[in-house]
Amino acid sequence: MRCIATLAIIVSWLAAASPVAARPAPPQPIVIKFSHSAGADTAKGKTIAHFKEVAEKRTGGAVRIEIFGNSQLYKDMEEYQALLLGAVHMIAPTTSTVGQKGVRDFDVFDLPYLFPNLKAVHTITQGPIGKSLLDKLPARGVVGLAYWDNGMRILTSNKPIATPADLQNKRMRGQYSKVFDTEMRVLGAKPLAAHFSDVKKGLDDDLFDGIEITLPNLYNLKLYTKQDYAVLTYHGYQGYVVLANKRFWEKLPPLIRKALESAMQETQSYADEMARRDGEDSLAKMIANGKPIFHTPTESEQATWHHASKRVYVAIDNWMNNDLIQSIYDEIGKLGDTEQVKILD
Question: Helices 299-315 and 178-186 meet at what angle, rounded to 10?
């Protein structure tokens, strides 16, 4: 009788517990792996962290974004292939990388003096032309979600640079970009492409005489300690394209996808402000440090850069989308910006 009583107690306990046990486990959040090559304290790193915060809030915790910065998983050119394979779900490569991976119209962002400033860039990236470029990406297995700034490019060297003549035979490091390669050759330099993570060692090993770079990257990567001189040409733009794996993106529940798109739109103004502030702060800190020595081209020197750069447009005529270049040039011209270089005239 005692055993039966004990069994009854156990059965009674299980019956009482069964409603709790029958409750379904809470759904697991959708994990999005976001890989990038920048540090957490850079404008890009802060912007991705901001997007994570907004996206997770907008989705009510249904999405968890895992950030892998500083090339923890992949280097610049490797992460694009990882995205296509689904090893990561989101990346923010440079426009140069997208061009190198076959969507050649993105090479337009590398052209010298096409964009006089970031305001002109935003006229394109946040307008119909920028959207038309993003619309080319799904055919390549990725979805373009936004453009983020890094800054305008300058040149540094271990010897003073004032005009294109000072680049003769210099080994200049730049992005993997057909435009960069063509530009440096036209200007008389020797172009050498390298991953960002390899530039510092390349300078230590005397592989490069100088680099094409933005102010934030020059400061944040501490490359300014390796170069004595810099010329503020602001001759080109460097920015990022936020990409998602197409298969992954399209399989997301529509409401989740819409929330993430909304979070990305909200992040845009934050990204623009972070990049602007990072550029200004980086320049101020390097000037205060006394290295490198910055040179602002005189009006006459600037004219020599503009004149020499026109030859780049002749050199790329047979493989660039000239209609796209002209449409960008014309659209920027509508701004009436006095800084616009008459590069196509």
Answer: 120
pLDDT of residue 196: 80
| 215 in Cβ contact with 279 (< 8 Å) | yes
Question: In this structure, what token pair is assigned to residue 19?
Answer: 């409603």
Q: Where are the alpha helices (DSSP H) in the chain?
A: 2-22, 43-58, 76-85, 95-100, 118-125, 128-134, 178-186, 196-204, 215-220, 246-251, 254-289, 299-315, 322-333
Using a 10 angstrom Cβ sphere, with 0-12 exposed, 13-18 middle and 19 or more buried, the burial of residue 190 is middle
Taking the model in full, what pTM does it have?
0.90
The two three-digit tokens of residue 100, written as one number: 């190198």
Rounded-to-integer distance, Cα 217 and Cα 35, Å: 18
Contact 214, 153 (CB under 8 A): yes
DSSP state of 29: P
CATH class of the structural domain 25-333: alpha beta
Which candidate, 84, 86, 44, places its Cα nearest to that of 67?
44
Could you tell me how many residues make up the chain? 345
CA distances from 68 to 51, 84, 154, 257 (A): 14, 17, 28, 21
- CA separation, residue 72 to residues 191, 320, 334 (Å): 27, 34, 43
Residue position matching structure tokens 């402000």: 273
Report pLDDT digits (tens) over 36-81. Answer: 989 999 999 999 999 999 999 999 999 999 999 988 889 877 999 9
Of the candidates 150, 122, 129, which has an alpha carbon nearest to the alpha carbon of residue 234? 150
Question: How many Å separate Cα 163 from the centre of its chain?
Answer: 28
Record the tokens describing residue 136, joined without a space: 């080319």
For residue 191, give every residue at least 6 positions away whose Cβ sits within 8 Å of its Cβ, in sequence order, or none: 172, 174, 180, 181, 183, 184, 185
